[in-house]
Amino acid sequence: MILANLSYNRFEATLQASLKPSGGLNKMKPEYLMVRGMRRVYSLLVVVAFIVSMLPAQSVGACFNPSDLYSVEVLLNKPGVEYNLSPAVPPVMEIEGKTFLLRVWNGSKGLHVWIGIPTVRHLGAYWVYSGTFILTSDALEKLRALGWIVNGSKLIKGNATFRITDQGWECKSDSDCATGGCSGEVCGRKGEVEKIVTPCVYAPWYECFQLTSCGCVNGTCSWKPNPEFEKCLRSHGVDPSKVIRAGPTGIVGKAPDPEDLREAVEELLKATGINCTKIEVQSRSEEGPAYDTSEVNASMVMMKVLEELVARGVVRGLTEEDIEEIAEVSEWGNAGWNSHIGWYETKNGTYAWIPYDESKDPLLVRFVGCGAWDTGNGSSVVSTGEPGTSEGLQHGTPEHIGSPRPSSSVSDSVKALCGPGVITLLSLWPLMIVRRRK
Questions:
Q1: Which end of the chain, N or C, is less packed with Cβ atoms under 10 Å?
Q2: Pick from 197, 208, 133: which is nearest to 165 by CA?
């Protein structure tokens, strides 16, 4: 970019010199004709550079599809592994009482085996809060007495779950806070609180500060709450909420039933002393996996599926050792172009069953769809009906529930513009401006 600007400036200087009169108004110097020709050549070269920069680079980002988070896929591309799609391949498989979607197809690179957790539409209610919020020991005691479970930033009451999402900005750790004031009674941000001046009058309740410390609470510098400190303050007739600062906090609560959520919100606000005149609970639905991925073993599911395909004669040449190695690296999320499992060269030069993005020099891409990335010319058997049924059985282009239908192959779907393309385009701007000379 710097060289381009320097070259352009030199062209401009030569151009200006060539435009100076030299014996005739209509005569142009040969230098001007040469510079004009060089400018055209230079502009053409920059255009070519821009076009080249738009081509996909070796690594242009990662493709992401929400269904990849609860899917696992293996490409059986190891030499010696054969397949036969003549035997019937079930669209779903029951494994340990759970239903899993199964798709098997012959792509241009080999046989693909894709396993997915069915998606379901979850109905639920949501509540969002942003404002002052702090959990004192009294508040925690009240909530636990009502059957609440407190786990860090997560609060649970029955089917209602609350998460503290946003906190204050004043501090990140206790080291960001310090004390100030004549008697050291003010807790604030280090570097600022030392400048605070207060009357040098020692109040009896200041002795309660010996039971606590100044630190970072919910992103705000505050005297840390604890039962002894709060009890001491009350004994002196001081409201703990007036001493314990609470920074702005965001809370998100959700539950399957709106009424259950509303009751939980009321309990939470009452226990923490927050006066909220109007509680707005919103009802909506969202699509997600039918099972919690943390409670379903992807390795076990992959092993059962591959063993079944071998037993049916769909796959041949896949040894028990291969199945074990594939299962060992199978995790929910290992699916799609970037993360599927296959027989690939490792970074140390050997071959093994590993996710593609962990192989040597992977070509990672970003593209629209992220579904069937290697359709090939083979056939596949899938089900577009409800999970657990054979309704909607089709043959042809792979599709699966919960993912966008692929509209083109990978090569047609590369949409990302990475690298210096935009910068190169900007460098064209001064060359495209033609200055009129009077």
A1: C
A2: 133
- Parallel, antiparallel, or unpaired: how do β-strands 71-76 and 341-345 relate? parallel
Shared domain for 161 and 143, answered yes or no, is yes
Helix (H, G, I), strand (E, B) or coil at 404: coil
Same domain as 281, residue 298: no
Same domain? 329 vs 237: no
Question: Are residues 426 and 140 in contact, defined by beta-carbon separation less than 8 angstroms?
Answer: no
pLDDT score recorded for residue 378: 39
d(CA 302, CA 308): 10
The more confident residue out of 26 and 397 is 26
Phi, psi angles (nearest 5°) of residue 268: -65, -45
Containing structural domain, residue 234: 122-286
pLDDT surpassing 90 at residue 312: yes
Backbone φ and ψ of 217, nearest 5° = -125, 115
Residue 327, both tokens: 């299962």
210 shares a domain with 161: yes
pLDDT-based confidence at residue 74 (cuts at 50, 70, 90): very high
**Euclidean distance between CA atoms 64 and 337, whole angstroms:** 9
> What is the tally of structural domains in the chain?
3
Own/partner long-range contacts of 387-395 (Cβ < 8 Å, ≥24 apart): 387/92, 387/99, 387/101, 387/118, 387/290, 388/92, 388/99, 388/118, 389/92, 390/91, 393/91
d(CA 257, CA 263): 10
- H-type helices in 133-257, by residue range? 137-145, 227-235, 240-243
Rounded Cα distance, 266 and 262, in Å? 6
In a domain, residue 403? The reply is yes
Mean pLDDT of 245-249: 69
Residue 223 and residue 80 in one domain? no
The sheet carrying 160-166 orders its strands as 149-151, 154-157, 160-166, 248-255, 119-132, 282-289
pLDDT tens for each residue of 98-145: 999 999 999 888 999 999 999 888 778 888 887 767 777 778 888 999
Residue 246 lies in a domain: yes
